[in-house]
Design brief:
The protein has 9 helices and 10 strands. The protein has 244 residues and is of the alpha/beta class. It has a 5-stranded mixed beta sheet with strand order 1-10-9-2-8, with helices on one face. Strands 5-4-6 form a 3-stranded parallel beta sheet, sandwiched between helices.
């Protein structure tokens, strides 16, 4: 009973929009689908929070989440980065350790890092691994998997070239994957970015999501796409012009 009461308290709090949020929705047309340029311009005009808000794209996909051949996962290298400095960890041995350190990885090692993570340490944003480390990393699946930190060949984080992977993330690589409700979110920058940078980052992100459309998907792939800041309402966007 207590748990149910807490759920309702959260719902009530969510319905109490802040003054800034209420100001932001003024002038928005309900259910309107905005051209991307117009949506970004609209976000830039909205009241700002007291911090540099993140700008994200959200997609709702027309896929069957029960079918393994319709799972969506991918990555994109944003031309202007995300505005966040990432802490990069690399699981590797031998010569790759030296190369990874020289490339600017924050943490480099093998068994000692595995033991540290098993003890509860998770102070990093990206984990990269050489293929020979994956057998040892399997025991971390339950820890890193739910947090989106488990290295994966499909996202380029299991690689024989850790230097390239490190450089890609430093340049602005982002990873994305579908959740259980067929939703995908992609960070494309900060509210302080100018409109041109946000547009170019958004374009690459949209094209990346379109590129990984599973062959088994029939009918409409992207059902809805929205752009928003951390504390702002979302604006539905027209993504169709980016279909190749």
């Amino acid at each position: 009973m207590r748990g149910k009461k807490r759920v309702w308290e959260i719902i009530i709090l969510m319905k109490k929009k802040s003054k800034r949020y209420s100001e932001a929705v003024k002038g928005l047309e309900k259910n309107k689908v905005y051209p991307l340029e117009e949506a970004i311009a609209g976000l830039k005009k909205m009241p700002c929070a007291k911090f540099d808000e993140t700008v994200d794209l959200y997609f709702n996909l027309g896929v069957d989440t029960k079918q393994t051949d319709q799972f969506v996962r991918g990555s994109a290298v944003l031309p202007h980065g995300t505005g966040k400095v990432l802490k990069i960890l690399v699981f590797c041995k031998g010569e790759n350790e030296r190369l990874a350190r020289e490339a600017g990885a924050d943490y480099v090692g093998s068994q000692e890092l595995i033991d540290k993570i098993n003890s509860g340490w998770l102070d990093f944003d990206v984990a990269i691994a050489s293929p020979d480390m994956m057998k040892d990393l399997s025991r971390l699946g339950k820890v890193l998997g739910p947090r989106g930190l488990m290295p994966n060949p499909k996202s380029g984080t299991v690689t024989t070239d850790p230097v390239k992977a490190i450089n890609d993330f430093k340049k602005g690589k982002v990873e994305f994957k579908m959740d259980k409700a067929a939703n995908v979110s992609v960070r494309i920058g900060k509210a302080s970015f100018d409109e041109k940078k946000l547009y170019e980052n958004a374009q690459i992100a949209i094209e990346a999501v379109l590129k990984v459309k599973p062959a088994a998907v029939k009918g409409q792939y992207i059902k809805n796409a929205v752009i928003s800041k951390t504390m702002s309402p979302g604006l539905r966007i027209d993504w169709s012009k980016f279909v190749v």
